[in-house]
From TrEMBL:
Alphabetic keyword roster: Cell membrane, Membrane, Transmembrane, Transmembrane helix, Transport
Compartments (UniProt record): Cell membrane
Keyword Nucleus (UniProt): no
An annotated GO cellular component: plasma membrane
Superkingdom of this protein's organism: Bacteria
Residue ranges crossing the lipid bilayer per the database entry: 20-40, 179-202, 223-246, 258-279, 291-310, 346-366
Membrane topology term: Multi-pass membrane protein
Record's keyword annotation contains Transport: yes
Name of the molecule in the record: ABC transporter permease
Primary subcellular site in the record, as a coarse category: membrane
Ranges where the ABC transmembrane type-2 domain occurs: 136-371
Length: 372
């Protein structure tokens, strides 16, 4: 125990002596957590719209006004023909074309129906799908309002109608930051835990101090614990700072139990630290360790459910995500913070990260060679 205390003292002195490391540990995650949710917006707005109005009636002006006043669309051009509007699509100045035919108002009033044409630039599939859905919804609402105004007296249908009242649970106002911030915090904690652990041990190899440690009577488990515990503590500090920033910057207060969050983070960090330790046993330089960690972090981020729902991924990708520890951390963060889930609700995620911690740390310890 005394040996471990000396090693921990040495590690903390070494960390706090390096100002760059302190900035990486404390400043960079805080700045990222503040800026990224503001910049990465799940909403699609300012969709450029090119309009071809062949009718130029009162109804067409109302329709165009309703579309542009929605806040999602920006009238990019008002064209005389479809070919002119198509040129704006080709030059990437417009995202959608709305063409209104001749006799639009007359046919609506006399025949109660009319068709309009919508062309969508689908290079950006997400923007195209959402833009088309927004426009269809606005046109549908305009159509319903118009029918209510035109329908009078005997023409009014007495058919039974169903009114639907919806309620959004756990995120009443559909604020994407409530969904996004816990995921970013999970990624940042993973970075601090695994990335810095790998670099710290590999740095010992580069400067040659690990050779001095190898010829000392220090036990293998003392050396490994001395390397892991400081970053386990620092990662918990980063997690606490992240929760405070989420509370005071974004107004996110966990609905669930704080103790459950810290319990899960404590276990999860054992897996993240084990990954960093494992990578350090294979890498001989910090550059190698950084490239290996970069590969894993890209996979963890893109296949962890931070940006894309795992349920929307192909079946083979969903199977791969089961071997991604970040996936379980992001799920638990959102479940506890937004839904107030209990230990029973996150039991499967708990078991998964415990298995990750056992496998990764055991593999790293077996792979670590200490020359006596």
């Amino acid at each position: 125990m005394r040996t471990l205390i000396f090693l921990l003292r040495k590690e903390f002195k070494q960390i706090f002596r390096d100002k760059a490391i302190l900035a990486i540990i404390f400043v960079m995650p805080s700045v990222q957590l503040i800026i990224m949710p503001l910049a990465a917006n799940y909403e699609v707005k300012k969709i450029n719209l090119a309009v071809v109005d062949n009718d130029k009636s009162t109804y067409t002006q109302k329709l165009i006004s309703q579309i542009t006043s929605s806040g999602y669309f920006r009238l990019q051009s008002y064209n005389a023909s479809y070919n002119d509007a198509y040129e704006s699509i080709k030059s990437d100045k417009a995202d959608l074309i709305l063409e209104i035919p001749h006799g639009f108002e007359r046919n609506l009033v006399r025949e109660n129906k009319e068709k309009i044409f919508v062309a969508i630039n689908a290079i950006n599939g997400t923007k195209a799908n959402l833009g088309g859905a927004y426009l269809s919804t606005i046109i549908g609402n305009f159509n319903n309002d118009l029918r209510m105004k035109l329908t009078v007296g005997s023409r009014f249908s007495q058919a039974t109608t169903i009114e639907i009242a919806s309620s959004n649970w756990f995120n009443m106002y559909m604020n994407y930051r409530l969904f996004f911030v816990p995921g970013i915090l999970a990624i940042l904690v993973t970075l601090v835990g695994s990335f810095l652990t790998a670099l710290n041990i590999v740095r010992e190899k580069e400067v040659g101090t690990i050779e001095q440690i190898n010829v000392t009577p220090i036990k293998k488990h003392h050396f490994i614990l001395g390397k892991l515990i400081p970053f386990w503590v620092l990662a918990n500090v980063i997690f606490t700072i992240g929760l405070l920033l989420g509370r005071f910057v974004y107004g996110i207060s966990p609905v669930g139990n704080f103790g459950l969050l810290y319990l899960f983070v404590g276990v999860y960090l054992l897996a993240a630290l084990g990954l960093g330790l494992l990578i350090s046993t294979f890498a001989d330089t910090q550059q190698q360790a950084m490239l290996i960690m970069f590969f894993f972090m890209m996979v963890f981020i893109l296949m962890g459910g931070l940006f894309t729902p795992i349920e929307s991924m192909p079946q083979w990708a969903q199977i791969i995500t089961k071997f991604n520890p970040v996936r379980y951390f992001i799920e638990v963060m959102r479940m506890v913070i937004l839904k107030g889930s209990t230990l029973r609700d996150v039991a499967s995620q708990f078991i998964a990260v415990i298995l990750f911690a056992i496998v990764l740390n055991s593999w790293a310890i077996l792979n670590y060679k200490k020359r006596n």
